[in-house]
Write a structure and sequence with these properties.
Oligomer: single chain
Number of domains: 3
Helix content: 40-55%
Structural class: alpha+beta
Largest sheet: 3 strands, antiparallel
Radius of gyration: 21 Å
Strand order of the largest sheet: 3-5-4
Shape: flat
Number of strands: 5
Strand content: 25-35%
Number of helices: 6
Length: 171
């Protein structure tokens, strides 16, 4: 669930502070949560990458896929592995738990067993899909694929234009 800060008011007589938020999405989830305990974690807002930057990324993915006679999805997964954002998540070495994890992430790489508190776990490297990336994360992904395209003599846009696309996000 996402909330956007609206205003803050301090009552001078009671010294209470009231903070108002606007629900950005998942209102149904919020309404269900109100019936039980609910905890909020505040963090800085990070804007998503621009549609133009995303389109350019997929244009380059398509060019690489054509060059290597493979699918766009295979190239995309390769780019996520090289330049993508991930989390390392330990899970019980249980097939059902691992399948559930794979449903929630764009790419999951099994990194083998690890010991946590005398329990054998599977360490999984879980990659976010690029649709969740902010400006900086998308810039890293685009710069990575641009570098690979340049290495293979695939024409790319001017570096200033790429930088402009990446910074020209739409909130």
């Amino acid at each position: 669930m996402k909330l956007r800060f609206k205003e803050i008011n301090k009552n001078l007589s009671t010294h209470e502070t009231e903070i108002t938020f606007v629900v950005v999405d998942e209102l149904d989830k919020l309404l269900k949560s109100i019936k039980t305990k609910i905890y909020f974690k505040l963090s800085n807002w990070v804007d998503k990458r621009s549609l133009q930057a995303n389109n350019y990324f997929w244009e380059l993915v398509s060019k690489l896929a054509s060059l290597f006679n493979t699918t766009d999805d295979e190239i995309y997964i390769g780019m996520l592995e090289r330049y993508g954002i991930f989390e390392i998540i330990p899970r019980l070495n249980d097939e059902q738990a691992l399948l559930e994890l794979k449903k929630k992430w764009r790419l999951v790489v099994d990194m083998g067993d690890c010991e946590i508190n005398d329990t054998t776990m599977r360490k999984m490297k879980c990659y976010y899909g690029s649709s969740t990336y902010n400006v900086q994360e998308m810039s890293k992904l685009i710069n990575g694929i641009v570098s690979e395209c340049e290495h293979l003599n695939i024409p790319t846009k001017d570096p200033k234009e790429i930088e402009r696309m990446c910074e020209n996000w739409k909130p």
